[in-house]
């Protein structure tokens, strides 16, 4: 049975970033990162890939290249947890024990929960596309280019999702593209969201509602996609308020799939009722197991699931874990900071930044609720560099 001082379950954004911070703060730690994938992705750029701005390959790196120096990469999948005995079970390599555990398994995309989605997503001629995976993101741009007339629908599910603003971003980009191609008067653009409004932070709502109105986008709130009939090109929605089923025809259907905590966490004993790792929202320490921490999308932290949130969570978690290791009380409190760069078109963006209380925590002196090219440039060209050369290195 192999043993490591610290085991990190997951080598995505959260796992790599927190490992880098730990090794920066205390070189020589014995850290093992368990991650099955041989590739690592910068997922925030997929909105712009879907909009035709970049090729998807810009988002991809070899996993081996982002593992922090000094950490051990175990290329395997977590099959189970036994927190009572400080053990994780691996699919291939058997049991692995630890002194401390960080759970950073991300979020699970539940493509199969919508009948008709798995068999139609990304398939030529179906009109069904999604920015939410490396395998399907190219289909969004292809579908936009093929769209000459009819109805283009962009969905947002009722479940928690990573980057809560992403479903509307691609809607705005597509509408802008149709306008530039001279087909906008022949295309109905529909944003069908299970939420009851355009955004959950009041400060940014007026500006986003103005975008919806100015661009003549039909916003259908409290509409949750429950079925796709690809042969008929029909999407079936359930009204969240009445339970009524509403069927809409489409030529283009961009789907944000339902998401949930990874299945392995739902039966792990570490999760809450939803399966999210049950941690204190300030310290990120597990409420029942003091040697277990969690951050990122799989955690119970009540904030938006974004890479920007992880950028603030990781250094705080590293400080708190090191405090516990040195028999001190965790004291670095994460305030729920997150950011959602809301692309509103080619060359325009609203940079939403806020905390647990949904209060703006803006970086710049100007009003970030206004659309700006400078913020678009930051997302397209600045943030990827900060990610690869800052966050994943423990420097940002």
Poorly predicted residue ranges: none
Mean pLDDT: 97
Q: Rg from C-alpha positions?
A: 21 Å
Oligomer: single chain
Strand content: 25-35%
Derived structural class: alpha/beta
What is the chain-wise order of helices and strands? Answer: EHEEHEHEEEEEEHEHEHEEEEEEHEHEEH
Distance between the termini: 35 Å
Annotation field: number of helices: 9
Helix share, percent: 10-25%
Total strands: the figure is 21
Question: What would you call the shape?
Answer: globular
Q: Major β-sheet, in short?
A: 7 strands, mixed
Annotation keywords:
single chain, about 400 residues, alpha/beta, seven-stranded mixed sheet, five-stranded parallel sheet, 9 helices, about 25% helix, about 25% strand, globular
Account of the protein in words:
This protein has 396 residues and is of the alpha/beta class. 24% of the residues lie in helices and 26% in strands. It contains nine helices and 21 strands. The strands form six sheets. Strands 1, 2, 5, 6, 7, 8 and 19 form a seven-stranded mixed β-sheet that branches. A five-stranded parallel β-sheet has the order 10-17-11-12-13. A hairpin with a 4-residue loop joins β6 and β7 (87-90). The radius of gyration is 21 Å and the shape is globular. The model has no long low-confidence stretch (mean pLDDT 97).
């Amino acid at each position: 049975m192999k043993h490591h001082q610290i085991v990190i379950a997951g080598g995505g954004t959260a796992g790599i970033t927190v490992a880098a911070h730990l090794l920066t703060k205390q070189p020589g730690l014995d850290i093992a990162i368990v991650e099955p994938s041989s590739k690592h992705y910068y997922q925030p750029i997929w909105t712009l890939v879907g909009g035709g701005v970049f090729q998807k390959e810009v988002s991809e790196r070899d996993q081996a290249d982002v593992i922090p120096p000094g950490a051990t990469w175990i290329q395997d999948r977590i099959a189970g947890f036994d927190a009572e005995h400080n053990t994780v079970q691996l699919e291939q390599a058997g049991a692995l024990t630890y002194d401390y555990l960080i759970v950073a398994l991300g979020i699970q995309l539940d493509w199969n929960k919508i009948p008709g989605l798995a068999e139609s997503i990304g398939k030529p001629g179906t009109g069904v596309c999604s920015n939410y995976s490396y395998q399907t993101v190219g289909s969004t741009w292809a579908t936009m280019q093929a769209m000459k007339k009819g109805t283009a629908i962009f969905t947002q599910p009722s479940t928690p999702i990573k980057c809560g603003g992403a479903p509307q971003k691609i809607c705005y980009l597509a509408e802008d593209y149709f306008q530039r191609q001279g087909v906008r008067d022949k295309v109905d653009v529909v944003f069908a969201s299970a939420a009851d409004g355009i955004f959950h932070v009041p400060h940014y709502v007026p500006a986003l509602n103005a975008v919806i109105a100015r661009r003549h986008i039909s916003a259908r709130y409290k509409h949750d996609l429950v079925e796709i009939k690809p042969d008929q090109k029909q999407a079936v929605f359930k009204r969240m308020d009445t339970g009524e089923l509403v069927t809409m025809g489409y030529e283009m259907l961009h789907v944000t799939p339902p998401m949930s905590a990874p299945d392995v966490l739902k039966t792990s004993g570490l999760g809450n009722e939803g399966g999210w790792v049950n941690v204190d929202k300030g310290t990120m320490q597990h409420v029942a197991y003091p040697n277990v921490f969690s951050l990122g999308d799989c955690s119970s932290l009540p904030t938006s699931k974004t890479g920007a949130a992880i950028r603030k969570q990781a250094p705080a978690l590293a400080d708190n874990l090191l405090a516990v290791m040195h028999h001190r009380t965790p004291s670095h409190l994460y305030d729920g900071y997150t950011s959602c760069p809301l692309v509103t078109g080619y060359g325009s963006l609203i940079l939403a930044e806020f905390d647990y209380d949904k209060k703006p925590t803006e970086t710049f002196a100007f009003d970030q609720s206004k659309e700006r090219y400078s913020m678009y440039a930051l997302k397209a060209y600045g943030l990827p560099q900060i990610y690869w050369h800052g966050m994943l290195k423990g420097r940002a």
